[in-house]
Amino acid sequence: CAELTVCDGLRARLFRISFSGELAYEIAVPARYGHALIERLMELGADLGATPYGTEALGVLRIEKGHAAGPELNGQATALMVGLGSMVSQKKDSVGAVMSRREGLAGDRRRLVGLRPVDPAGKV
Predict the structure, then answer these.
(1) Its pTM surpasses 0.70
(2) Contact partners, residue 44, CB within 8 Å, separation at least 6
(3) Is 74 part of any domain?
(4) Domain of 101?
């Protein structure tokens, strides 16, 4: 975390946080200044093609990077399904081990995977 000044004197905090798995930063300002800050950032980033994205896009980016969270960890998915099977101990009981034995979830039935198109220039 670093403290900085934005928008002509507004104090803010800069965090190196990545919910998407990409190199990302978060700028925290009091809520009443959020709109002014985003307008200024979009103005400064216009020639770089900066554009805001929503929480659905954030979720897709996160899943593409293989970061399991929230919706994937909803009591209907096991650690194995979301690529975290190696983190569940096979030697002792744990919450993850109990989940992996739950009826309908046991075994290697479903798995969260990333897909790459055969032709990167093609439409998905």
Answers:
(1) no
(2) 50
(3) yes
(4) 68-115
